[in-house]
Write a structure and sequence with these properties.
Length: about 200
């Protein structure tokens, strides 16, 4: 094979490689959906009911979300999950039942590698968290909460459309606890740290 043919073959191979890598980059107009499993750690000292300290136990559940990129580096994501069921304990008092927590998050994400030829696409995001509580112990009700949320994550491209996803998020959740006919009797004050993983599918 002549040198010209060798050089031509090398250029074609390099171009093909660059093209195959380029499709892995996040670009303006990309739409994606995500699904997976997450573990939420609520820490301890999560508020009070009357004179008793309240602890909200950690929980695990399925998560899902969708997003859109306005530019190669800036996008928006809306995500949520099934209801996380948290056991409740007071001190003194012990086990007092459980409560369901449903988070809904709207975030603006920044992709530092967006538009670049990389299978690894990290991102960070900040936004608003809405949390709805339900399934409280009989006689109690917990108000909904609005607060800030931040996240950091990573997508690892397996194919042009399928990516492995992992992330960690932190949210500020604070709500009043009420008793019917009495009013406010305490508060839930948790800062859940959620670690999750799953699959991202990009359109």
């Amino acid at each position: 094979m002549s040198k010209l043919k060798l050089m031509t073959a090398a250029v074609v191979s390099a171009s093909a490689f660059m093209a195959s890598q380029a499709v892995m980059a996040y670009e303006a107009g990309d739409v994606f959906v995500r699904g997976g499993v997450a573990q939420t750690d609520t820490g301890s000292g999560n508020g009070n009911v009357g004179d008793a300290d309240l602890n909200v136990q950690s929980a695990r559940g399925f998560t899902f979300g969708a997003g859109y990129l306005f530019t190669d580096k800036i996008g928006m994501e809306l995500n949520s999950s099934e209801k996380f069921e948290h056991d409740l304990n007071t001190r003194p008092g012990g086990d007092v039942g459980s409560v369901d927590r449903l988070p809904v998050n709207l975030l603006v994400n920044y992709y530092p590698m967006g538009g670049l030829d990389s299978r690894v696409q990290p991102y960070v995001g900040v936004g608003l968290n809405y949390t709805r509580f339900s399934g409280e112990p009989e006689g109690l009700s917990v108000d909904s909460s609005y607060g800030v949320i931040g996240q950091a994550g990573l997508d690892l491209a397996v194919t042009e459309n399928i990516m492995l996803n992992g992330y960690v998020s932190y949210a500020d959740v604070n709500s009043d606890i009420n008793v019917e006919g009495v009013g406010r009797v305490g508060e839930v004050d948790i800062e859940p740290v959620t670690v999750g993983g799953g699959i991202t599918y990009r359109f």
